[in-house]
Recover the amino acids of this structure.
């Protein structure tokens, strides 16, 4: 068999053989970004959760990511460990509709440990105007057609 001509085969806990496909890194980033965006949308319509220890008295508002007015700044930051390749820092500014990705240096990555390297920045304002882009079938229009015609729609 030629290397890479077929997907890897594995056996699931139920004993059924399944194909294992590698997921592209851009797909994982898009999924992660969508999860954060969905969480933000859900949270914006509900009361704020109780404060965590780091948000309590004695912690400066700048450290908590708050604006001078004490409200939310609209900036979210989180990291993603890359194993021996260091970590990534994601900054999402919901007001400016911009995403920035940094690599955090560590031993063996070619970057000085603790340093930041800007990898990409993107304003996603216009991206969100698209109904679909680079998606797999079925297309949004096909699903809309199925739902409006009543084909394949579950009834409660």
């Amino acid at each position: 068999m030629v290397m890479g001509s077929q997907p890897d085969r594995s056996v699931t806990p139920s004993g059924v053989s399944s194909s294992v496909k590698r997921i592209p890194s851009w797909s994982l980033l898009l999924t992660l970004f969508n999860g954060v965006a969905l969480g933000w949308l859900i949270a914006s319509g509900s009361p704020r959760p109780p404060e965590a220890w780091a948000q309590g008295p004695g912690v400066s508002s700048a450290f908590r990511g708050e604006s001078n007015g004490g409200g939310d700044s609209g900036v979210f930051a989180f990291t993603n460990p890359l194993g021996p390749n260091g970590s990534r820092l994601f900054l999402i500014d919901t007001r400016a509709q911009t995403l920035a990705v940094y690599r955090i240096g560590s031993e063996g990555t070619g970057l000085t440990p603790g340093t930041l390297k800007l990898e990409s920045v993107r304003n996603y304002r216009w991206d969100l105007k698209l109904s679909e882009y680079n998606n797999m079938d079925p297309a949004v229009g096909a699903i809309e057609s199925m739902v409006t015609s009543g084909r394949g729609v579950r009834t409660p």
Residues 55-71 have pLDDT under 50 and may be disordered. The longest helix spans residues 25-44. The CA atoms of residues 29 and 99 lie 11 Å apart.
